[in-house]
Specification:
Elements (H helix, E strand, L loop, with lengths): L1 H17 L14 H14 L8 H28 L3
């Protein structure tokens, strides 16, 4: 019960925080999807913001790449459940 209460409180805090934002005009988040995708890939691979922190940024890059590698490994393992060639 304590875990459920803490989870509910955390969800409420996140929702309250998100409601502080301003509404976004229609179409501003969906314009130019290619440019947005390139930016996301550049940020993920280059970690341009985190690398301002020096060694912490480099360590964080290894963690992010590790999570991506883990995702690929899990996808591969699930695929092998259905076809174990």
């Amino acid at each position: 019960m304590v875990g459920v209460a803490l989870f509910g409180r955390a969800v409420l805090q996140i929702v309250t925080y998100m409601r502080l934002g301003q509404p976004v005009p229609a179409g501003t988040r969906t314009n130019d999807p290619v440019d947005r995708t390139v930016t996301v890939v550049r940020e993920f691979l280059g970690h341009t913001r985190m690398n301002r922190w020096g060694i912490v940024g480099v360590a964080h890059w290894f963690v992010a790449v590790g999570f991506f590698s883990l995702l690929l490994t899990i996808v591969n393992a699930v695929g092998q459940l259905f076809q174990a060639d």
